[in-house]
Amino acid sequence: MKKIILLILAVTFFNCKNETAKKDTDNNLKTEAQAFLDEYSKTYKDLYYASALAEWDANTKIVPGDTLNAFNVQKANEAFAKFTGSTDVIEKTKTFLESKDLLDIKQIRQLNSILYKAANNPEIVSDLVSERITAENAQNETLFGFDFKVDGASTTTTEIDRILRESNNEAKRLKVWESSKEVGTELKDGLENLVSLRNKTVNALGYDDYFTYQVSDYKMTREEMLNDMDKIIKEVWPLYRELHTWARYELAKKYGKNVPDYIPAHWLPNRWGQDWSALVKVEGFDIDEALKDKSAEWIVTEGEEFFKSIGFDPLPSVFYEKSSLYPLPEDATYKKNNHASAWHMDLENDLRSLMSVVPTAEYYETVHHELGHIYYYQSYSNPDVPLLLREGANRGYHEAIGSMLGLAAMQKPFLEGRGLVDANIKIDETQNLLKEALNYVAFLPFGAGVMTQFENALYAENLPKDEYNKKWWELAKKYQGMVPPTERGEEYCDAASKTHINNDAAQYYDYAISYVLLFQFHDHIAKNVLHQDPHATNYFGSKEVGEFLKSVLRTGANNDWRALLKQSVGSEMSAKPMLDYFEPLMDYLKEENKGRTYTLPESI
Among the listed ranges 21-35, 265-279, 338-352, 490-504, which one has the minimum average pLDDT value? Predict the structure, then answer.
């Protein structure tokens, strides 16, 4: 008996010792992983900041023939790429992930982020990475330094956009539309080269193609993303079909032409036909008129006042000191990127925006949108979110928050409160809803259809260069019901006139996802936070709205985006709130379209 007791004690002691040793080993692994993450993050931040600074200069001061910016971008981005794609980093990261059951979830998320970033810059194909960086810089210089001309005189994309929004002169519209596409001819060869380089770069770490690589950031396959985009289009298609029919007849009447089966691209108030909202003017709701005496600076500070009113901190002084917010003077000897964007320069407090703000309704909305990004950055720049997870819950979240705040800032009660609309004026709510639908609904066949399918064809289906324009217009006709005003052969590359095709590649589905998410968030805020009609809300001054937004924003990417959505709004990703929002419009459109010929199929 005594021997048995001694044996049991010995076994127990041995097990306890082994368990203690195992705990020590587990703790040691966690400690080693954390030390690696801390060291990586410090270097990552320094190199990220250097890259952002070089890119900022290259986007805000474009001088024809000046190679200094290109050299600085190349140098900074190569250093960043060499570090993030280091073979040593990749091997260490993979080794830690082999024992991920012993790590905490925050460490696992950071390690996965490291591996994802490495796939874009793997050291094992460093020559390819360097070549791709050079090619990307050259493409940007061509894109943003291009001299747009009408009748031999230089013009700007801002002026082109204004004419397409406002002019009733079809001949003039055609000229500026064709001018807006000329840049594509200069970009076509560079785009073909970039497609090849981007694919070969990510092939090195096992991705089939660059489109698949970008989609994987959502923890989805290429096929899953394409299926989700198809689903979104199918859900909104009945409403889009009504909008398309309405627009064909209204535009034909406007230009004194026969009603076309498909809309000529230069008839629409946007270079790519992605936003038709300028087709409708809501009587008594002319925000452009209300803003005409305001300064561009007022528009920006007005946006900041909104965020402060719901409980966010003032913008840091660096925002106003370092941002490029307004159009360049007419006598400027250089150009800048006119595409509005928000920049988190150092993943800490250096927050900037690149815009060309003028006092218009479009920029009033844009400022609220871009500041939405800035405040997202500011919210997740906190000690609970590691540097490597200072991103949106997914890329679509970032755009969703910005677009939702842009939508909220354009609703009548909000604008009344800001003194931009007379509270006593009764507006036509149906026309206002139509205007919104011509923005948000009209966008989806372009974003989820044309752009997503075109980039899928580019990267995953090896679309040959001599079919770029043919494919682009096939997709525009299928999804948007839009055709070019004249024959557009392969000497053109109209897709490349879209900024994102060149320098934000294979990610445009982000915007489609964001539109679905924004209506989910807006619907929840309206009904459950403000207890207001989603069509007529006023976020301004609501600390409760601010608290809800902070609960979504403050965790950055340190979460599962699907779980965060369900926790925030109580449902998975769904277009239902968007369809519910625009449901009152269907009866009006069907009545307007009675007796008219539909040219889009009933389903797609």
Answer: 21-35
Whether 451 contacts 500, CB under 8 Å:
yes
- What is the model's pTM? 0.91
At 284 the pLDDT is: 85
d(CA 372, CA 377): 9
With residue 154 as reference, give the H or E element that holds it.
strand 153-155
Task: Report, as an integer, the average pLDDT of 259-280.
Answer: 97
pLDDT at 601 over 80: yes
Q: Domain spanning 283-427+509-573 has what CATH number?
A: 1.10.1370.40
Query: Is 90 exceeded by the pLDDT of residue 306?
Result: yes
Helix (H) or strand (E) holding 351: strand 351-354
First to last CA, the chain: 81
Going 136 to 356 to 436 to 277, the CA torsion angle's sign is: negative
Domain ranges within the chain, ordered by starting residue: 283-427+509-573
Contacts of 285 (CB under 8 A, 6+ apart): 412, 421, 425, 427, 432
Give per-residue pLDDT as tens, 111-154: 999 999 999 999 999 999 999 999 999 999 999 889 999 999 99
What residues contact residue 549 under an 8 Å CB cut-off, 6+ apart?
310, 379, 401
Q: Taking each helix axis from N to C terminus, what angle separates 222-255 and 509-524, rounded to the nearest 10 degrees? A: 80
SS3 state at 344: strand
* Amino acid in the structure at residue 140: N
- Can you name the residues that pair with 482 across neighbouring β-strands? 263
- Could you give the maximum distance between any two Cα atoms of the chain, in Å? 108
Q: How confident is the model at residue 416 (pLDDT cuts 50, 70, 90)?
A: very high
Are 443 and 275 a contacting pair, CB within 8 Å? yes
Residue 289 sits at the vertex; the CA angle it makes with 285 and 292, to the nearest 5 degrees, is 145
Question: From CA 471, how far away is CA 478, in angstroms rounded?
Answer: 11
% the chain with pLDDT above 70:
96
What residue has token string 């970033």? 117
- Neighbour tally for 224: CB within 10 Å: 12
Nearest in space to 240 (alpha carbons), one of 512, 442, 433 = 442
| CA–CA gap between residue 228 and residue 233 (Å, rounded) | 9
Note the pLDDT of residue 337.
87
**3-class SS of residue 479:** helix
